[in-house]
């Protein structure tokens, strides 16, 4: 294999693929990126951790077709440190990859491409397109609620499913995530081709890699899936992932429908108030107390080791006054996703789940479990 590629092109491609590669690997070849030079020109870069695989096509002048695997992180670090505008020559021979750029040269050990594992996709019967912006919204407004608890592995991702219960009976696609303390759900119109789609749980790592790639996409993303695999076609890059093999809980049961106490409040001043008083909250509970009175909301924190703090924030509230406590970090995560000028907080009592949304037409809704304070 022999090819010449511009440093910026190589760096961008490697930055996408190397982040899939785990830093610590028991299987040496999983530390490597597969570089394949096609006779008609261009390089294919590929990396995998056996659950997630990325393939990226980059422009390059190819003198000799061939394929080789080499340490992903080492090659990325070299490309990062090469001078801007450099032309990088890659040549594989005798178990080494020779890299030359200007006065720089190095030789890295390689492993044969035949040993490189590839995720077998099998049939992906459901396929549809989503605008990149919609996909970003689905991820950004739910990702923070993904559980990091490995024992409940079926919560370690975003749950995607289709339903018929949209406004006016319109079919919808829903994305949901929960860690047992809070729930985030976003609803968008069901895209053409998604009817009959199986319920799937997209793993957290795939969600993170996909989100990074979406920043460089303007148009639509092709999504193909089966009950066990999902593939995102982002033009130059294709991301394929195994899905989480588990059953996502019926989260609709925890979405309260009878919360009759409504607080309407500016999310920015609410967020800033929570942030300020929670500065002294204990690291373990991060508890903030919210005392609701007619059109007056008092946020307070009392910590045995750090003292006390309180702040009044303006809001519209006409129901009976009471006190409720929340984990301040969870509350801030949710408020950070609210884009409008008003957020509605629907409450029942100090022990019941609280519903938070911009308004009833908003595509996103959040449920937050209160805590004792």
Could you explain how this protein is built, in words?
By secondary structure, the protein is an alpha+beta fold. It has 3 domains: 2-111, DNA Polymerase III, subunit A, domain 2 (DNA Polymerase III, Chain A, domain 2, Roll); 126-253, DNA Polymerase III, subunit A, domain 2 (DNA Polymerase III, Chain A, domain 2, Roll), CATH 3.10.150; 256-371, DNA Polymerase III, Chain A, domain 2 (Roll). 16% of the residues lie in helices and 42% in strands. Strands 5-1-7-8-9-6-2-3-4-17-16-15-10 form a 13-stranded antiparallel sheet. The protein has a 12-stranded antiparallel sheet with strand order 14-11-12-13-25-24-23-18-21-20-19-22. Helix 1 packs antiparallel against helix 2 (72-81) and helix 5 runs antiparallel to helix 6. It starts with a strand and ends in a 5-residue tail after the last strand.
Largest sheet: 13 strands, antiparallel
Molecular shape: elongated
Number of domains: 3
Q: In terms of structural class, how would the helical and strand content be classed?
A: alpha+beta
**Annotation field: number of helices:** 6
**Gross CATH architecture of the largest domain:** Roll
CATH superfamily of the largest domain: DNA Polymerase III, subunit A, domain 2
**CATH topological fold name of the largest domain:** DNA Polymerase III, Chain A, domain 2
In the CATH scheme, the class of the largest domain would be Alpha Beta
Physical arrangement of strands within the biggest beta sheet:
5-1-7-8-9-6-2-3-4-17-16-15-10
Distance N terminus to C terminus? 65 Å
Pfam families: DNA_pol3_beta, DNA_pol3_beta_2, DNA_pol3_beta_3
Main location: cytoplasm
Family: Belongs to the beta sliding clamp family.
Protein name: Beta sliding clamp
